[in-house]
Amino acid sequence: MIRDGFILASILFALGTAGVLVRRNIIFVLMSIEVMLNAAGLAFIAAGARWSQPDGQILFLFILAMAAAEVSVGLALVLRFYHQYKLLDADAASRMRG
Amino acid sequence: MQVVFYVSGAIAILATVLMLTRLNAVHSLLYLVVSLLAIAVVFYVLGAALAAALEVIIYAGAIMVLFIFVVMLLNLGETAANEERQLLNASMWVGPAILSAVLIAEFVYILSAESHGNFPAQVGPRQVAAALYAPYLIGVELASMLLLAGIVGAYHLGFRKVRKGAS
To answer: CA-CA distance, A72 to B150, in Å (whole number)?
Structure first.
């Protein structure tokens, strides 16, 4: 079951990567990043369950804190982006100005 | 317990695929919430009850509320009214509802048949807390600094937007 947990984590991570690469809406890109972070957390939990140690859950807590900070900053950036370009296409910001 | 693991894993993959292929952001968020709940069940079966609870409370609760808040904030006016009309449409919520019903069935099954089945030993909150505040204390401090930086960054970005809109 623990091995299958790793397989599930890798499938979810691959799906998240595909989402980041395929979708162009920034909200969808952020959601795909969430899926990838979650898959990494699942891998940590499965590894912790393999040796019955609490370290996997602790690493998951750190991933959770990191995801919360990332989402708050990312969504603030999305709001800024929308007010600047009036759309949510990531390709609209492909050119830098500076 | 094996069955619960495989069913919730399948729900997680299915909900993630459906999330990636939806065009509407709110539909996709509903599927993402279902996917997170399914992964919480997987955590519980793997013996991480604390992580499962935090997954439901923080990921499926707090972070998804932030997402929904921003999505609702971004399309105002006529599109928001259409969105509201669609929310009452059955085709929108029936998919996530079916997947969630399967998860509820699993929940009832776990509660009723807790003793039998071989699943990995539970690592309880007591062990996690003991390890978190002794060898990983520096990590907790760093996480608090990261969250502070996240708050300041989000406030900064939001504040400049408001000032620009006012002028």
So the answer is: 7
